[in-house]
Amino acid sequence: MKKRGIGVGSMFYGMGYGFSRQDIGSAEVEICEDGSVILRSGEVDYGQGSDTIFCQIVAEELGIRYDAIQIITADTFTTPNAGPTSASRLTYVTGNAVLKAARALRNRLEEIARKMLGEEDLVFVDEEIFSETHPEKRISFATLAKEGHLRGVAMVETTWHDITTGDVDRETGQGNAYSNYSFATQLAEVEVDTETGKVEVLRVIAATDVGKAINPSNVEGQIEGGVVMGVGYALTEEVKQEKGYVKTENLGEYMVPTSLDIPDIETHIVEVPISSGPYGAKGVGEPALIPTTPAILNAIANALGVRVTDLPANLENLHRLIRENEKNR
Amino acid sequence: MQHFEFHSAASIEEAAGLLAEKRDGCRVIAGGTDLIPALRNEDFHPDLVLSLLEVESLRGIREDDNAVWIGPLTTFTEIVESEVIGRHFPLLAQAAATVGGPQIRNRGTIGGNIANASPAADVLPAALALDAELQIRSKASGEKRVPLAEAIEKPYRIKFRPDEFLTGIVLRKLDAGTRSAFEKLGRRNAMARARMNLSLVLRQDPDGRVSDLRIVPGAVMPVARRMKKAEERLLGKKPDEKWIEDVSNRLVDEMTGVTGHRWSTEYKVPVMRNIFGRMLKGIIV
Lengths: 329, 285
Prior knowledge:
Helix content of chain A is 31%, strand content 26%. By secondary structure, chain A is α+β, with helices and mostly antiparallel strands. Chain A folds into 2 domains: 2-15 and 178-328, Aldehyde oxidase/xanthine dehydrogenase, molybdopterin binding domain (Aldehyde Oxidoreductase, domain 4), CATH 3.30.365; 24-162, Aldehyde Oxidoreductase, domain 4.
Protein backbone atom coordinates (compact mmCIF):
# COMPACT_ATOMS: atom_id res chain seq x y z
CA MET A 1 0.00 0.00 0.00
CA LYS A 2 1.15 3.52 -0.67
CA LYS A 3 0.67 6.02 2.13
CA ARG A 4 1.23 9.73 2.02
CA GLY A 5 2.23 12.12 4.75
CA ILE A 6 3.23 15.72 5.27
CA GLY A 7 5.87 16.90 7.71
CA VAL A 8 7.38 20.16 8.87
CA GLY A 9 10.96 20.89 9.84
CA SER A 10 12.05 24.19 11.39
CA MET A 11 15.41 25.42 12.51
CA PHE A 12 17.41 28.35 13.71
CA TYR A 13 21.08 28.43 13.07
CA GLY A 14 23.95 30.43 14.57
CA MET A 15 26.00 31.92 11.75
CA GLY A 16 29.75 31.75 11.97
CA TYR A 17 31.71 30.08 14.74
CA GLY A 18 30.37 31.73 17.89
CA PHE A 19 31.47 30.67 21.40
CA SER A 20 34.39 33.16 21.32
CA ARG A 21 36.12 31.26 18.51
CA GLN A 22 38.07 33.35 16.02
CA ASP A 23 35.75 34.43 13.19
CA ILE A 24 37.37 36.81 10.72
CA GLY A 25 37.18 37.78 7.09
CA SER A 26 39.39 40.02 4.98
CA ALA A 27 39.57 41.58 1.56
CA GLU A 28 41.75 43.85 -0.49
CA VAL A 29 40.22 46.05 -3.18
CA GLU A 30 42.38 47.91 -5.67
CA ILE A 31 41.13 50.43 -8.23
CA CYS A 32 43.46 50.53 -11.22
CA GLU A 33 44.25 53.58 -13.34
CA ASP A 34 41.95 52.42 -16.13
CA GLY A 35 38.99 52.08 -13.77
CA SER A 36 39.10 48.33 -13.56
CA VAL A 37 39.06 46.80 -10.11
CA ILE A 38 40.93 43.89 -8.53
CA LEU A 39 39.48 42.15 -5.50
CA ARG A 40 41.65 39.80 -3.47
CA SER A 41 40.47 37.60 -0.66
CA GLY A 42 41.67 34.37 0.89
CA GLU A 43 38.19 32.86 0.85
CA VAL A 44 37.38 29.80 -1.21
CA ASP A 45 34.41 29.60 -3.54
CA TYR A 46 33.85 25.86 -3.94
CA GLY A 47 30.72 26.29 -5.95
CA GLN A 48 28.40 28.08 -3.57
CA GLY A 49 28.87 31.40 -5.35
CA SER A 50 30.74 33.63 -2.88
CA ASP A 51 32.94 35.09 -5.64
CA THR A 52 29.78 36.26 -7.40
CA ILE A 53 28.43 37.84 -4.23
CA PHE A 54 31.70 39.71 -3.48
CA CYS A 55 31.96 41.10 -7.01
CA GLN A 56 28.33 42.18 -6.78
CA ILE A 57 29.08 44.04 -3.54
CA VAL A 58 32.02 45.88 -5.12
CA ALA A 59 29.99 46.69 -8.24
CA GLU A 60 27.13 48.00 -6.09
CA GLU A 61 29.37 50.24 -3.97
CA LEU A 62 31.39 51.71 -6.84
CA GLY A 63 28.55 51.89 -9.38
CA ILE A 64 30.54 49.88 -11.91
CA ARG A 65 29.91 46.86 -14.08
CA TYR A 66 30.19 43.45 -12.44
CA ASP A 67 32.51 42.27 -15.21
CA ALA A 68 34.94 45.17 -14.63
CA ILE A 69 36.04 43.37 -11.45
CA GLN A 70 38.75 40.77 -11.41
CA ILE A 71 38.62 38.52 -8.36
CA ILE A 72 41.59 36.58 -7.05
CA THR A 73 40.90 34.20 -4.18
CA ALA A 74 42.40 31.44 -2.11
CA ASP A 75 46.01 32.11 -3.08
CA THR A 76 48.23 32.16 0.00
CA PHE A 77 50.89 34.02 -2.00
CA THR A 78 48.73 37.02 -2.86
CA THR A 79 45.49 37.04 -0.89
CA PRO A 80 44.87 38.02 2.74
CA ASN A 81 43.63 35.34 5.12
CA ALA A 82 39.83 35.32 5.15
CA GLY A 83 39.33 32.30 7.35
CA PRO A 84 37.71 29.03 6.27
CA THR A 85 34.76 28.57 3.98
CA SER A 86 32.38 27.05 6.49
CA ALA A 87 29.67 27.87 9.00
CA SER A 88 27.61 29.62 6.29
CA ARG A 89 29.76 32.66 7.02
CA LEU A 90 31.35 34.00 3.82
CA THR A 91 28.69 36.49 2.75
CA TYR A 92 28.10 37.48 6.35
CA VAL A 93 31.74 37.88 7.43
CA THR A 94 34.02 38.27 4.40
CA GLY A 95 31.18 40.04 2.55
CA ASN A 96 31.39 42.73 5.22
CA ALA A 97 35.15 43.06 4.71
CA VAL A 98 34.61 43.48 0.96
CA LEU A 99 31.89 46.03 1.58
CA LYS A 100 34.10 48.04 3.96
CA ALA A 101 37.00 48.09 1.49
CA ALA A 102 34.85 49.12 -1.47
CA ARG A 103 33.05 51.78 0.56
CA ALA A 104 36.32 53.29 1.83
CA LEU A 105 37.57 53.65 -1.74
CA ARG A 106 34.26 55.06 -2.86
CA ASN A 107 34.44 57.69 -0.10
CA ARG A 108 37.89 58.74 -1.31
CA LEU A 109 36.73 58.94 -4.91
CA GLU A 110 33.66 60.87 -3.84
CA GLU A 111 35.84 63.43 -2.09
CA ILE A 112 37.84 63.95 -5.27
CA ALA A 113 34.66 64.14 -7.38
CA ARG A 114 33.15 66.77 -5.07
CA LYS A 115 36.15 68.97 -5.65
CA MET A 116 36.12 68.34 -9.41
CA LEU A 117 32.37 68.80 -9.93
CA GLY A 118 31.70 71.31 -7.15
CA GLU A 119 28.66 69.34 -6.03
CA GLU A 120 27.84 67.52 -2.78
CA ASP A 121 24.98 65.14 -3.71
CA LEU A 122 26.88 62.61 -5.79
CA VAL A 123 25.74 59.17 -6.89
CA PHE A 124 27.81 56.33 -8.42
CA VAL A 125 25.75 54.64 -11.14
CA ASP A 126 26.53 52.88 -14.44
CA GLU A 127 30.23 53.76 -14.49
CA GLU A 128 29.51 57.43 -13.86
CA ILE A 129 29.48 59.81 -10.93
CA PHE A 130 27.02 62.69 -11.12
CA SER A 131 25.05 65.19 -9.06
CA GLU A 132 21.44 64.27 -8.40
CA THR A 133 20.32 67.90 -8.55
CA HIS A 134 22.57 68.83 -11.49
CA PRO A 135 22.90 65.59 -13.45
CA GLU A 136 24.76 67.37 -16.25
CA LYS A 137 27.68 67.62 -13.87
CA ARG A 138 29.23 64.19 -14.26
CA ILE A 139 32.49 62.30 -14.61
CA SER A 140 33.18 58.77 -15.73
CA PHE A 141 34.38 56.24 -13.18
CA ALA A 142 37.52 55.58 -15.26
CA THR A 143 38.44 59.28 -15.36
CA LEU A 144 37.86 59.59 -11.62
CA ALA A 145 40.00 56.51 -10.97
CA LYS A 146 42.83 57.98 -13.03
CA GLU A 147 42.44 61.26 -11.14
CA GLY A 148 42.75 59.39 -7.84
CA HIS A 149 46.05 57.90 -8.95
CA LEU A 150 47.34 61.26 -10.26
CA ARG A 151 46.51 62.99 -6.97
CA GLY A 152 48.33 60.34 -4.96
CA VAL A 153 45.21 59.14 -3.12
CA ALA A 154 45.44 55.56 -1.88
CA MET A 155 43.54 53.44 -4.37
CA VAL A 156 44.07 50.20 -2.47
CA GLU A 157 42.20 49.29 0.68
CA THR A 158 42.72 46.24 2.83
CA THR A 159 40.09 45.43 5.41
CA TRP A 160 39.50 43.01 8.19
CA HIS A 161 36.14 42.09 9.62
CA ASP A 162 35.90 40.35 12.94
CA ILE A 163 32.67 38.94 14.34
CA THR A 164 34.31 36.87 17.08
CA THR A 165 31.71 36.71 19.84
CA GLY A 166 31.87 36.45 23.58
CA ASP A 167 31.40 33.05 25.13
CA VAL A 168 28.46 31.61 27.01
CA ASP A 169 28.62 31.12 30.73
CA ARG A 170 30.73 27.99 31.20
CA GLU A 171 28.77 26.93 34.27
CA THR A 172 25.23 27.43 33.01
CA GLY A 173 25.69 27.27 29.25
CA GLN A 174 23.63 30.44 29.01
CA GLY A 175 24.44 33.48 26.92
CA ASN A 176 24.38 34.66 23.32
CA ALA A 177 26.60 32.16 21.56
CA TYR A 178 26.54 33.58 18.06
CA SER A 179 26.83 36.90 16.30
CA ASN A 180 23.49 36.34 14.60
CA TYR A 181 20.94 33.70 13.67
CA SER A 182 19.01 32.66 10.63
CA PHE A 183 15.71 30.83 10.43
CA ALA A 184 14.12 28.38 8.04
CA THR A 185 11.07 26.15 7.77
CA GLN A 186 10.37 23.44 5.25
CA LEU A 187 7.42 21.25 4.41
CA ALA A 188 7.87 17.84 2.84
CA GLU A 189 5.25 15.55 1.35
CA VAL A 190 6.20 11.90 0.97
CA GLU A 191 4.70 8.71 -0.36
CA VAL A 192 5.79 5.50 1.38
CA ASP A 193 5.40 2.09 -0.23
CA THR A 194 4.62 0.02 2.86
CA GLU A 195 5.34 -3.20 0.97
CA THR A 196 8.94 -2.29 0.12
CA GLY A 197 9.93 0.54 2.47
CA LYS A 198 10.58 2.83 -0.47
CA VAL A 199 10.03 6.54 0.12
CA GLU A 200 9.37 9.02 -2.67
CA VAL A 201 9.63 12.66 -1.69
CA LEU A 202 6.81 14.24 -3.68
CA ARG A 203 7.56 17.88 -2.96
CA VAL A 204 9.39 20.20 -0.63
CA ILE A 205 8.42 23.76 0.16
CA ALA A 206 11.29 25.73 1.66
CA ALA A 207 11.13 29.14 3.31
CA THR A 208 14.48 30.56 4.37
CA ASP A 209 15.17 33.89 6.07
CA VAL A 210 18.29 35.17 4.32
CA GLY A 211 18.21 38.73 5.65
CA LYS A 212 18.69 40.12 2.17
CA ALA A 213 19.14 38.10 -1.02
CA ILE A 214 22.15 39.76 -2.66
CA ASN A 215 21.68 37.35 -5.57
CA PRO A 216 18.21 35.75 -5.52
CA SER A 217 19.04 33.09 -8.15
CA ASN A 218 22.09 32.10 -6.14
CA VAL A 219 20.00 31.89 -2.96
CA GLU A 220 17.43 29.74 -4.75
CA GLY A 221 20.24 27.48 -5.93
CA GLN A 222 21.61 27.23 -2.41
CA ILE A 223 18.19 26.32 -1.02
CA GLU A 224 17.57 23.70 -3.71
CA GLY A 225 21.05 22.26 -3.17
CA GLY A 226 20.42 22.12 0.57
CA VAL A 227 17.17 20.23 0.03
CA VAL A 228 18.97 17.70 -2.20
CA MET A 229 21.52 17.07 0.55
CA GLY A 230 18.70 16.77 3.09
CA VAL A 231 16.91 14.18 0.95
CA GLY A 232 20.12 12.13 0.75
CA TYR A 233 20.76 12.47 4.49
CA ALA A 234 17.21 11.31 5.25
CA LEU A 235 16.87 8.44 2.81
CA THR A 236 20.05 7.07 1.25
CA GLU A 237 23.42 8.38 2.42
CA GLU A 238 25.19 6.14 4.90
CA VAL A 239 28.73 5.67 6.11
CA LYS A 240 29.11 2.10 7.31
CA GLN A 241 31.79 1.27 9.82
CA GLU A 242 33.13 -1.99 11.12
CA LYS A 243 35.38 -1.96 14.17
CA GLY A 244 36.32 1.60 13.38
CA TYR A 245 37.05 1.00 9.71
CA VAL A 246 34.95 2.84 7.16
CA LYS A 247 33.31 0.29 4.90
CA THR A 248 31.61 2.74 2.56
CA GLU A 249 34.52 3.15 0.24
CA ASN A 250 33.23 5.17 -2.68
CA LEU A 251 30.37 7.16 -4.15
CA GLY A 252 29.05 4.00 -5.79
CA GLU A 253 28.11 2.84 -2.30
CA TYR A 254 27.49 6.21 -0.65
CA MET A 255 24.18 6.91 -2.32
CA VAL A 256 23.82 10.58 -3.15
CA PRO A 257 20.40 11.36 -4.65
CA THR A 258 20.15 11.63 -8.43
CA SER A 259 17.94 14.09 -10.27
CA LEU A 260 15.29 11.35 -10.44
CA ASP A 261 15.15 11.26 -6.63
CA ILE A 262 14.53 14.97 -6.21
CA PRO A 263 11.03 16.38 -6.17
CA ASP A 264 9.80 19.81 -7.16
CA ILE A 265 11.23 22.29 -4.71
CA GLU A 266 9.28 25.45 -4.08
CA THR A 267 11.56 28.11 -2.60
CA HIS A 268 10.44 31.13 -0.66
CA ILE A 269 13.12 33.70 0.06
CA VAL A 270 12.26 35.56 3.24
CA GLU A 271 14.07 38.87 3.72
CA VAL A 272 14.32 40.26 7.24
CA PRO A 273 17.49 42.38 7.07
CA ILE A 274 19.94 42.40 9.97
CA SER A 275 22.13 45.41 10.71
CA SER A 276 25.29 43.34 11.07
CA GLY A 277 25.12 41.79 7.56
CA PRO A 278 26.18 43.37 4.27
CA TYR A 279 22.97 45.08 3.03
CA GLY A 280 21.27 43.06 5.77
CA ALA A 281 22.32 39.65 4.38
CA LYS A 282 22.74 36.46 6.40
CA GLY A 283 24.32 33.14 5.49
CA VAL A 284 22.14 30.63 3.64
CA GLY A 285 24.29 27.52 3.02
CA GLU A 286 23.53 25.28 5.97
CA PRO A 287 20.18 26.85 6.88
CA ALA A 288 18.94 25.60 3.51
CA LEU A 289 19.80 22.00 4.41
CA ILE A 290 19.00 21.65 8.10
CA PRO A 291 15.15 21.51 8.03
CA THR A 292 14.86 19.00 5.14
CA THR A 293 15.65 15.74 6.91
CA PRO A 294 13.37 16.43 9.92
CA ALA A 295 10.59 17.50 7.56
CA ILE A 296 10.92 14.24 5.61
CA LEU A 297 11.08 12.09 8.76
CA ASN A 298 8.04 13.90 10.19
CA ALA A 299 6.23 13.26 6.90
CA ILE A 300 7.09 9.56 7.15
CA ALA A 301 5.77 9.53 10.73
CA ASN A 302 2.63 11.28 9.52
CA ALA A 303 2.17 8.67 6.78
CA LEU A 304 2.89 5.55 8.83
CA GLY A 305 2.62 6.38 12.50
CA VAL A 306 6.19 5.12 12.77
CA ARG A 307 9.04 7.31 13.88
CA VAL A 308 12.46 6.88 12.27
CA THR A 309 15.25 7.27 14.80
CA ASP A 310 18.17 5.87 12.81
CA LEU A 311 19.33 7.33 9.50
CA PRO A 312 19.06 6.72 6.67
CA ALA A 313 15.44 5.68 6.28
CA ASN A 314 16.44 3.37 3.43
CA LEU A 315 14.53 0.35 2.13
CA GLU A 316 15.67 -2.11 4.78
CA ASN A 317 15.59 0.21 7.77
CA LEU A 318 12.16 1.59 7.05
CA HIS A 319 10.67 -1.78 6.18
CA ARG A 320 11.98 -3.20 9.47
CA LEU A 321 10.18 -0.39 11.34
CA ILE A 322 7.00 -1.06 9.38
CA ARG A 323 7.17 -4.78 10.23
CA GLU A 324 7.85 -4.11 13.91
CA ASN A 325 4.98 -1.68 14.02
CA GLU A 326 2.62 -4.27 12.51
CA LYS A 327 3.75 -6.86 15.05
CA ASN A 328 3.11 -4.51 17.97
CA ARG A 329 -0.46 -3.85 16.93
CA MET B 1 47.78 0.10 -13.55
CA GLN B 2 47.37 -3.02 -15.64
CA HIS B 3 49.29 -3.81 -18.80
CA PHE B 4 47.58 -5.73 -21.55
CA GLU B 5 47.32 -5.81 -25.28
CA PHE B 6 44.20 -4.27 -26.77
CA HIS B 7 42.76 -5.28 -30.09
CA SER B 8 39.57 -4.27 -31.81
CA ALA B 9 38.27 -7.01 -34.10
CA ALA B 10 36.78 -6.00 -37.42
CA SER B 11 34.81 -9.20 -38.03
CA ILE B 12 33.38 -12.24 -36.28
CA GLU B 13 35.99 -14.45 -38.01
CA GLU B 14 38.86 -12.29 -36.79
CA ALA B 15 37.49 -12.30 -33.24
CA ALA B 16 37.04 -16.10 -33.34
CA GLY B 17 40.59 -16.52 -34.64
CA LEU B 18 42.13 -14.34 -31.94
CA LEU B 19 40.18 -16.06 -29.17
CA ALA B 20 41.25 -19.48 -30.45
CA GLU B 21 44.85 -18.34 -30.41
CA LYS B 22 44.93 -16.48 -27.06
CA ARG B 23 42.42 -18.64 -25.17
CA ASP B 24 42.67 -18.18 -21.39
CA GLY B 25 44.42 -14.83 -21.32
CA CYS B 26 41.77 -12.95 -23.25
CA ARG B 27 38.80 -10.91 -22.07
CA VAL B 28 36.13 -9.78 -24.49
CA ILE B 29 34.91 -6.22 -24.13
CA ALA B 30 31.80 -4.57 -25.55
CA GLY B 31 30.52 -1.37 -23.89
CA GLY B 32 32.95 -1.83 -21.00
CA THR B 33 30.56 -0.64 -18.28
CA ASP B 34 31.28 -3.79 -16.25
CA LEU B 35 34.73 -4.70 -17.55
CA ILE B 36 36.49 -1.35 -17.09
CA PRO B 37 35.68 -1.07 -13.36
CA ALA B 38 36.67 -4.74 -12.94
CA LEU B 39 39.99 -4.06 -14.67
CA ARG B 40 40.54 -1.05 -12.41
CA ASN B 41 39.82 -3.22 -9.38
CA GLU B 42 42.29 -5.78 -10.75
CA ASP B 43 39.67 -8.50 -10.50
CA PHE B 44 41.56 -10.23 -13.31
CA HIS B 45 44.72 -9.69 -15.33
CA PRO B 46 44.18 -10.35 -19.04
CA ASP B 47 46.95 -10.55 -21.64
CA LEU B 48 44.58 -9.34 -24.31
CA VAL B 49 41.40 -7.28 -24.19
CA LEU B 50 39.48 -7.98 -27.35
CA SER B 51 36.90 -5.40 -28.36
CA LEU B 52 33.93 -6.46 -30.46
CA LEU B 53 32.51 -2.94 -30.75
CA GLU B 54 33.52 -2.53 -34.37
CA VAL B 55 31.92 -5.79 -35.50
CA GLU B 56 28.85 -4.34 -37.15
CA SER B 57 27.19 -7.72 -37.69
CA LEU B 58 26.88 -8.11 -33.91
CA ARG B 59 24.60 -5.09 -33.75
CA GLY B 60 20.91 -4.55 -34.29
CA ILE B 61 17.51 -6.13 -33.79
CA ARG B 62 15.97 -8.36 -36.45
CA GLU B 63 12.57 -9.97 -36.54
CA ASP B 64 11.20 -12.98 -38.40
CA ASP B 65 7.89 -14.80 -38.07
CA ASN B 66 8.75 -16.73 -34.95
CA ALA B 67 11.58 -14.97 -33.21
CA VAL B 68 13.53 -11.78 -32.63
CA TRP B 69 17.30 -11.76 -32.90
CA ILE B 70 19.18 -9.19 -30.83
CA GLY B 71 22.81 -8.49 -31.59
CA PRO B 72 24.90 -8.64 -28.40
CA LEU B 73 26.25 -5.15 -29.06
CA THR B 74 22.76 -3.67 -28.94
CA THR B 75 22.77 -1.02 -26.22
CA PHE B 76 20.19 -0.75 -23.46
CA THR B 77 19.05 2.54 -24.98
CA GLU B 78 18.50 0.84 -28.34
CA ILE B 79 16.44 -1.86 -26.61
CA VAL B 80 14.37 0.73 -24.74
CA GLU B 81 13.70 2.64 -27.96
CA SER B 82 13.14 -0.38 -30.24
CA GLU B 83 9.64 -0.63 -31.68
CA VAL B 84 10.09 -4.39 -32.22
CA ILE B 85 11.13 -5.02 -28.62
CA GLY B 86 8.37 -2.75 -27.31
CA ARG B 87 5.77 -4.72 -29.30
CA HIS B 88 6.97 -8.26 -28.50
CA PHE B 89 8.97 -8.02 -25.30
CA PRO B 90 8.00 -4.98 -23.23
CA LEU B 91 9.50 -6.85 -20.26
CA LEU B 92 12.96 -6.56 -21.79
CA ALA B 93 12.52 -2.86 -22.54
CA GLN B 94 11.30 -2.19 -18.99
CA ALA B 95 14.30 -4.01 -17.54
CA ALA B 96 16.75 -2.23 -19.83
CA ALA B 97 15.26 1.15 -18.85
CA THR B 98 16.24 0.58 -15.21
CA VAL B 99 19.94 -0.01 -15.89
CA GLY B 100 22.21 2.72 -14.46
CA GLY B 101 21.61 6.11 -16.01
CA PRO B 102 21.43 7.47 -19.57
CA GLN B 103 25.21 7.36 -20.11
CA ILE B 104 25.47 3.73 -19.03
CA ARG B 105 22.43 2.76 -21.09
CA ASN B 106 23.99 4.44 -24.13
CA ARG B 107 27.18 2.47 -23.67
CA GLY B 108 26.30 -0.82 -22.00
CA THR B 109 25.10 -3.74 -24.11
CA ILE B 110 22.69 -6.62 -23.66
CA GLY B 111 25.45 -9.05 -24.61
CA GLY B 112 27.68 -7.68 -21.89
CA ASN B 113 24.91 -7.78 -19.30
CA ILE B 114 24.30 -11.45 -20.07
CA ALA B 115 27.91 -12.56 -20.52
CA ASN B 116 29.06 -10.78 -17.34
CA ALA B 117 26.39 -12.73 -15.40
CA SER B 118 26.34 -10.36 -12.46
CA PRO B 119 23.99 -11.57 -9.72
CA ALA B 120 22.52 -8.04 -9.69
CA ALA B 121 21.99 -7.78 -13.47
CA ASP B 122 18.70 -6.22 -14.54
CA VAL B 123 18.34 -7.46 -18.12
CA LEU B 124 19.65 -10.99 -17.58
CA PRO B 125 16.66 -12.10 -15.43
CA ALA B 126 14.23 -10.59 -17.94
CA ALA B 127 15.97 -12.55 -20.71
CA LEU B 128 15.66 -15.71 -18.59
CA ALA B 129 11.94 -15.09 -18.15
CA LEU B 130 11.70 -14.84 -21.94
CA ASP B 131 13.50 -18.21 -22.29
CA ALA B 132 16.26 -16.57 -24.30
CA GLU B 133 18.69 -18.64 -26.31
CA LEU B 134 22.29 -17.66 -26.83
CA GLN B 135 24.19 -17.97 -30.10
CA ILE B 136 27.73 -18.93 -29.25
CA ARG B 137 30.59 -18.98 -31.68
CA SER B 138 34.07 -20.44 -31.77
CA LYS B 139 36.61 -21.12 -34.46
CA ALA B 140 36.69 -24.82 -33.62
CA SER B 141 32.93 -25.51 -33.39
CA GLY B 142 31.35 -22.76 -35.46
CA GLU B 143 28.02 -21.50 -34.19
CA LYS B 144 25.73 -23.24 -31.70
CA ARG B 145 22.65 -22.34 -29.73
CA VAL B 146 22.32 -22.81 -25.99
CA PRO B 147 19.40 -21.89 -23.72
CA LEU B 148 20.47 -19.01 -21.49
CA ALA B 149 19.18 -20.92 -18.45
CA GLU B 150 21.73 -23.69 -19.12
CA ALA B 151 24.56 -21.29 -19.91
CA ILE B 152 24.89 -19.61 -16.54
CA GLU B 153 27.45 -21.42 -14.43
CA LYS B 154 27.97 -19.21 -11.37
CA PRO B 155 28.16 -15.52 -10.49
CA TYR B 156 30.11 -13.64 -13.14
CA ARG B 157 30.57 -16.83 -15.11
CA ILE B 158 28.86 -18.07 -18.26
CA LYS B 159 29.77 -21.59 -19.40
CA PHE B 160 31.77 -20.39 -22.39
CA ARG B 161 34.91 -22.17 -23.42
CA PRO B 162 37.78 -19.68 -23.55
CA ASP B 163 37.57 -19.67 -27.34
CA GLU B 164 33.82 -19.01 -27.42
CA PHE B 165 31.94 -15.73 -27.52
CA LEU B 166 28.38 -14.50 -27.75
CA THR B 167 27.11 -13.60 -31.20
CA GLY B 168 23.38 -13.28 -30.67
CA ILE B 169 20.42 -13.48 -28.31
CA VAL B 170 17.31 -15.14 -29.70
CA LEU B 171 13.88 -14.62 -28.18
CA ARG B 172 10.98 -16.69 -29.44
CA LYS B 173 7.84 -14.63 -29.82
CA LEU B 174 5.27 -15.19 -27.10
CA ASP B 175 1.76 -16.45 -27.76
CA ALA B 176 -0.87 -13.78 -28.13
CA GLY B 177 -2.29 -12.65 -24.82
CA THR B 178 0.88 -13.30 -22.87
CA ARG B 179 1.46 -10.58 -20.30
CA SER B 180 4.53 -9.56 -18.38
CA ALA B 181 5.72 -7.30 -15.61
CA PHE B 182 9.06 -6.02 -14.33
CA GLU B 183 9.95 -4.19 -11.16
CA LYS B 184 13.30 -3.14 -9.75
CA LEU B 185 13.96 -1.99 -6.24
CA GLY B 186 17.07 0.11 -5.79
CA ARG B 187 18.27 2.48 -3.13
CA ARG B 188 17.63 5.38 -5.48
CA ASN B 189 15.80 5.97 -8.74
CA ALA B 190 18.83 5.90 -11.06
CA MET B 191 22.45 4.75 -10.90
CA ALA B 192 21.55 2.05 -8.40
CA ARG B 193 22.31 -1.65 -8.29
CA ALA B 194 19.17 -3.68 -7.81
CA ARG B 195 18.46 -4.63 -4.21
CA MET B 196 16.13 -6.98 -6.01
CA ASN B 197 14.21 -7.15 -9.24
CA LEU B 198 11.47 -9.42 -10.47
CA SER B 199 10.49 -10.48 -13.97
CA LEU B 200 7.12 -12.14 -14.56
CA VAL B 201 5.59 -13.67 -17.69
CA LEU B 202 2.03 -14.98 -17.57
CA ARG B 203 -0.40 -16.53 -20.00
CA GLN B 204 -3.92 -17.62 -19.13
CA ASP B 205 -6.36 -19.80 -21.06
CA PRO B 206 -9.62 -18.19 -22.15
CA ASP B 207 -11.21 -19.62 -18.99
CA GLY B 208 -8.58 -17.92 -16.82
CA ARG B 209 -6.43 -20.95 -16.02
CA VAL B 210 -2.69 -20.32 -16.01
CA SER B 211 -1.07 -22.02 -18.97
CA ASP B 212 2.38 -20.42 -18.70
CA LEU B 213 4.08 -18.71 -15.80
CA ARG B 214 7.69 -17.67 -15.51
CA ILE B 215 9.08 -16.10 -12.36
CA VAL B 216 12.64 -14.83 -12.29
CA PRO B 217 13.82 -12.86 -9.28
CA GLY B 218 17.10 -11.00 -9.70
CA ALA B 219 19.74 -9.90 -7.17
CA VAL B 220 18.45 -12.29 -4.52
CA MET B 221 20.40 -15.43 -5.43
CA PRO B 222 23.97 -16.00 -6.62
CA VAL B 223 22.59 -16.87 -10.04
CA ALA B 224 19.22 -15.76 -11.41
CA ARG B 225 16.94 -18.55 -12.59
CA ARG B 226 13.32 -19.41 -13.18
CA MET B 227 11.59 -20.49 -9.98
CA LYS B 228 10.08 -23.64 -11.42
CA LYS B 229 8.62 -25.11 -8.24
CA ALA B 230 6.66 -21.95 -7.58
CA GLU B 231 5.67 -21.63 -11.23
CA GLU B 232 4.30 -25.17 -11.30
CA ARG B 233 1.98 -24.48 -8.36
CA LEU B 234 -0.13 -22.14 -10.45
CA LEU B 235 -0.12 -24.03 -13.73
CA GLY B 236 -3.65 -25.07 -14.66
CA LYS B 237 -5.11 -23.05 -11.77
CA LYS B 238 -7.28 -19.97 -11.79
CA PRO B 239 -5.21 -17.57 -9.70
CA ASP B 240 -7.10 -16.29 -6.70
CA GLU B 241 -5.92 -14.62 -3.50
CA LYS B 242 -5.25 -17.99 -1.84
CA TRP B 243 -3.22 -19.37 -4.72
CA ILE B 244 -1.20 -16.21 -5.09
CA GLU B 245 -0.29 -16.32 -1.42
CA ASP B 246 0.60 -19.99 -1.74
CA VAL B 247 2.82 -19.36 -4.75
CA SER B 248 4.52 -16.36 -3.13
CA ASN B 249 5.33 -18.57 -0.13
CA ARG B 250 6.76 -21.22 -2.47
CA LEU B 251 8.73 -18.54 -4.23
CA VAL B 252 10.45 -17.23 -1.12
CA ASP B 253 10.99 -20.78 0.19
CA GLU B 254 12.69 -21.67 -3.08
CA MET B 255 14.75 -18.50 -2.81
CA THR B 256 15.90 -19.06 0.77
CA GLY B 257 16.49 -22.72 -0.08
CA VAL B 258 19.24 -21.48 -2.36
CA THR B 259 20.66 -18.64 -0.29
CA GLY B 260 20.13 -19.81 3.27
CA HIS B 261 19.47 -17.14 5.87
CA ARG B 262 21.55 -14.01 5.33
CA TRP B 263 21.53 -10.54 6.81
CA SER B 264 19.36 -9.35 3.94
CA THR B 265 16.87 -12.22 4.14
CA GLU B 266 14.63 -10.55 6.71
CA TYR B 267 14.07 -7.75 4.20
CA LYS B 268 14.10 -9.68 0.97
CA VAL B 269 11.67 -12.44 1.93
CA PRO B 270 8.66 -10.32 2.89
CA VAL B 271 9.34 -7.74 0.19
CA MET B 272 9.76 -10.36 -2.54
CA ARG B 273 6.48 -11.85 -1.41
CA ASN B 274 4.84 -8.41 -1.54
CA ILE B 275 6.07 -7.32 -4.93
CA PHE B 276 5.40 -10.72 -6.47
CA GLY B 277 1.81 -10.61 -5.22
CA ARG B 278 1.09 -7.13 -6.45
CA MET B 279 2.85 -7.59 -9.80
CA LEU B 280 0.99 -10.83 -10.49
CA LYS B 281 -2.33 -9.22 -9.54
CA GLY B 282 -1.44 -6.41 -11.94
CA ILE B 283 -1.24 -8.76 -14.95
CA ILE B 284 -3.94 -11.32 -14.13
CA VAL B 285 -6.92 -11.01 -16.41
